[in-house]
């Protein structure tokens, strides 16, 4: 997380410098005010998303999460992640806090990645509300059905890579190649 802060901080400094060179302190102030307005509009969604994540983390037992979408849940966990990701509306402010709480409670990388991929690629709400009416049924249906297999494949592959990577890092730690 700290690396993202550094990258974002450098970007803000660079844009502040550019805005100052282009329009002085007035443009810098206008830019920060515009960002503040966006923040205030998004703040309720952020609060609600994190509140939902907190409730789910406290109310759902770890055993339940691990059994249904845990590391060892197999294809069942991937399928649950795919269906849930496809059906859940909302933006990243809702999804990522919830997924982080599920990971903390024992969810596997595969099912969580499948969820994210299904939300991104399939998204029933987006499909019905935006794609069908705007792009037309032919293009929307072709895109939709072409995407169906990918969340499952992505989740399986992510879980496999993650497990291999963790095993490799643990073996490096045992042989003192990695500190910690």
Provide a concise account of the structure shown:
This protein has helices at 2-59, 62-69, 74-87, 92-104, 109-121, 124-135, 137-147, 150-174.
Question: Can you describe what's shown?
Answer:
There is one protein chain. The chain is mainly alpha-helical and 180 residues long. It has 2 domains: 1-59; 61-174, no CATH class. The chain is built from 8 helices and no strands. The radius of gyration is 21 Å and the shape is globular. The chain starts with a helix and ends in a 6-residue tail after the last helix.
Main attributes?
mainly alpha; 180 residues; globular
Helix percent reads: over 70%
Query: Would you identify the regions where 5 or more consecutive residues have pLDDT less than 50?
Result: none
What global shape is seen? globular
Count of individual beta strands: 0
Distance between the termini: 19 Å
Mean pLDDT: 92
The domain tally reads 2
Tally of helical runs = 8
What is the percentage of strand-forming residues?
A: under 5%
Radius of gyration: 21 Å
Please describe the biggest sheet, giving its number of strands, its sense, and whether it closes into a barrel.
none
Helix/strand structural class: mainly alpha
Q: Report the order of strands and helices.
A: HHHHHHHH
């Amino acid at each position: 997380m700290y690396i993202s802060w550094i990258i974002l901080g450098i970007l803000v400094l660079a844009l502040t410098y550019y805005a100052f060179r282009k329009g002085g302190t007035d443009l810098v102030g206008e830019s920060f005010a515009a960002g503040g307005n966006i923040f205030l509009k998004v703040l309720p969604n952020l609060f609600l998303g994190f509140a939902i994540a907190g409730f789910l983390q406290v109310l759902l037992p770890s055993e339940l999460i691990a059994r249904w979408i845990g590391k060892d849940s197999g294809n069942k966990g991937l399928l649950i992640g795919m269906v849930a990701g496809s059906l859940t509306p909302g933006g990243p402010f809702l999804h990522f806090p919830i997924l982080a709480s599920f990971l903390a409670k024992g969810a596997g990388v595969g099912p969580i990645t499948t969820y994210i991929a299904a939300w991104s690629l399939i998204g029933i709400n987006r499909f019905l509300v935006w794609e069908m009416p705007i792009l037309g049924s032919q293009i929307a249906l072709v895109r939709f059905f072409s995407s169906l297999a990918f969340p499952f494949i992505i989740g399986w592959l992510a879980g496999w890579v993650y497990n291999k990577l963790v095993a490799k890092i643990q073996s490096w730690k045992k042989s003192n190649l990695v500190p910690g």
